[in-house]
Amino acid sequence: MTELLTPAELEARLREMGARRYHNLHPFHRLLHSGKCSKGQVQAWALNRYYYQAMVPIKDASLIARCEDPDIRREWRKRLEDHDGSDTGPPEGGGIERWLKLTDGLGLDRQAVISTRLLLPGTRYAVEAYVHFVRERSLLEAIASAMTELFSPQIITERLEGMLSHYDYITDETMSYFRKRPPQAERDANYVLDYVKKHARTPEQQQAVLDALSFKCDVLWAMLDALHHAYVSPGLIPPGAFVPAPGDA
Amino acid sequence: MTELLTPAELEARLREMGARRYHNLHPFHRLLHSGKCSKGQVQAWALNRYYYQAMVPIKDASLIARCEDPDIRREWRKRLEDHDGSDTGPPEGGGIERWLKLTDGLGLDRQAVISTRLLLPGTRYAVEAYVHFVRERSLLEAIASAMTELFSPQIITERLEGMLSHYDYITDETMSYFRKRPPQAERDANYVLDYVKKHARTPEQQQAVLDALSFKCDVLWAMLDALHHAYVSPGLIPPGAFVPAPGDA
After folding, report:
1. Least CB–CB distance from B238: residue in A225, A234, A240
2. Does domain B13-230 have CATH number 1.10.10.10?
3. A7-232 — its CATH code?
4. What is the pLDDT of residues A136-155, one digit of tens each?
5. Closest CA to A224 of A18, A54, A24, A19
6. How high is the mean pLDDT of chain B?
7. How far is B93 from chain A (nearest CA, A)?
8. How many CB atoms lie within 10 A of CB B43?
């Protein structure tokens, strides 16, 4: 990119990228939301996605740890509270605890989930790539990589309704993670969008912001590729990864 | 593991893990070696595997950079020479240059290959996970993770013969990488095996060595999973990745 975009043009390009690249377009999500997944596939999704949830506060603390501006650090700390919970927070705990309610509800052993020993290697590498990106790239790129949340309220609403209506073992209680997330995600995404519109002031910085969103779309997409490959088609589960019980497969 | 193994028992466990987990068992390799890949699939394999080749010296220099023993550093430096070449080395260059002869011979644009912009994200994350492992784990684990070469001379010989006999666009010249590798890999693998047998002196260290080999088997396997998913079955190429020409697909 050689031309400087206005903040509104940059926002339009970012939204356009989300419309083309966000993982709601991945075939696995369409299967999941439309009720076409077996219980074993839903379990595999929840177990693998747990690692992403568990690493989000590590990622966010890595960003805070490299940030010299106390205003940004304070703002970003809300994310730690959302995921890790707090004494004064909601009694159902933070996002990780609520994700474990989902894996509990799906009949997965909680210690096995937390140990991540049944994870797909592809999930692990994609999530770690995200953490390393946030640690190693510029602060602008690290912040921009969180912008996929701009597109998450919609996918979460689709998921909540789709999964509650299609799977009889999914209850409102086990889906509590998804009830809480949309307002948090919206608040966070607006902060990030405002930040990059204000701080990407050269064509190079604007390109870096677009590339950061592209990178993050790739991470989420690759996680679903790994799931789809192992549990849908061709269904090649790598050695050591979660194997659904015969009745759930 | 709670029991201390003899060095010979440790070696037997490592060899047994290779026999069960090395990526020669992956369906993609069977397709590749038996002549069942389309030219586009062979191109995708060579283009993605290029990134692994290109990162090997980065990985090896990372190991040297954290190693206080000049004997190990000197030994490990041979790997840099093998991959990056040297003025006094063979005129056909180091391993990376020879890999590019393969991608040239397959009709891939050399600058596109080197830029890695057409790489599968799953390949990128797996290779980066390997580099980070070598940087962040103990020196013993970093060294042990190179042990997959113990199993590579056999796969390379199978590949050389299989690919030369099955694909008319593969020539002895383009396969020069594979002619050179077996003796190098054998020398390196024997060094690593001797090292871990000597330095893994507690059950915990022996377990760490086994886990390092398991990790590395997962990395190689995940790279082929990503290829198989994108280019074989179900053939879902992620946005932005290499797309074979219609006549080669």
Report:
1. A225
2. no
3. 1.20.910.10
4. 999 999 999 999 999 998 88
5. A24
6. 94
7. 31
8. 24
